[in-house]
């Protein structure tokens, strides 16, 4: 017990019984101050620090370019932070959320900034993100074949939506869900008969 302020110092049990192995330090660093990633060699960085720096930069960008929505900035910040965890922290699985979040953020940003117009961009960018997850998985020697197939399907859907929008065939909107259902059903039947 600290005689100056009456607070306890050191390790204190949180609960009796089987949970007695769980302990916490009273009067130490706050829990949010420890949000970070570290590799075995002592190299670490503060994830909360990365998030705050990126969020501050994003809000400055939004001040200069008000067409960018807060949702796009949040997706971008979370994607870059996940990428930092992957690159700097060495967490291999962090590339998957990084690629997905950055794909969604970029798809929104190109439309909000007026670089492109029309539909299909979200599916296209998300498909490319999934393809990159597959490619990095191959490089990391991790099987992510699901990402390749989902990515190809989304790229085809995105390209089809762009082509339909360019030609002006807006009435074909129900064709793509029906086509996806047919392909999925064919794959289910194929897997069912190959297992038998």
Overall description:
The structure is a single chain. This protein is mainly α and 196 residues long. The protein has 2 domains: 1-30, no CATH class; 44-171, no CATH class. It is 60% helix and 7% strand. The protein is built from 6 helices and 4 strands; from the N terminus they run E-E-E-E-H-H-H-H-H-H. It has helices at 47-64, 70-87, 95-112, 121-139, 145-167, 175-195; strands spanning 10-13, 23-26, 36-38, 44-46. It has a two-stranded antiparallel sheet. The protein has a two-stranded antiparallel sheet with strand order 3-4. Strand 3 (36-38) and strand 4 form a beta hairpin. Helix 1 (47-64) packs antiparallel against helix 2 (70-87), helix 2 (70-87) packs antiparallel against helix 3 and helix 4 (121-139) runs antiparallel to helix 5 (145-167). It is flat. The model is unreliable at 17-27, 29-35 and 37-42 (pLDDT under 50).
Secondary structure: elements and pairs:
Elements: E1 10-13, E2 23-26, E3 36-38, E4 44-46, H1 47-64, H2 70-87, H3 95-112, H4 121-139, H5 145-167, H6 175-195
Antiparallel strand pairs: 1-2, 3-4
């Amino acid at each position: 017990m600290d005689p100056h302020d009456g607070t306890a110092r050191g390790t204190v049990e949180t609960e009796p019984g089987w949970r007695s192995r769980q302990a916490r330090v009273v009067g130490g660093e706050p829990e949010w101050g420890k949000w970070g990633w570290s590799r075995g060699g002592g190299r670490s960085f503060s994830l909360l620090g990365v998030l705050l720096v990126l969020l501050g930069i994003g809000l400055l960008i939004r001040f200069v370019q008000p067409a960018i929505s807060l949702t796009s900035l949040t997706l971008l910040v979370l994607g870059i932070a996940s990428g930092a965890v992957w690159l700097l922290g060495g967490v291999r699985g962090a590339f998957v959320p990084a690629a997905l979040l950055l794909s969604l953020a970029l798809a929104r940003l190109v439309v909000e900034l007026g670089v492109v117009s029309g539909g299909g961009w979200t599916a296209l960018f998300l498909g490319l993100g999934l393809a990159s997850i597959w490619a990095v998985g191959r490089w990391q020697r991790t099987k992510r074949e699901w990402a390749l197939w989902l990515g190809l399907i989304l790229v085809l859907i995105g390209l089809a939506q762009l082509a339909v929008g360019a030609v002006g065939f807006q009435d074909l909107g129900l064709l793509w869900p029906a086509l996806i259902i047919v392909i999925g059903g064919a794959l289910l039947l194929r897997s069912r008969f190959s297992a038998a």
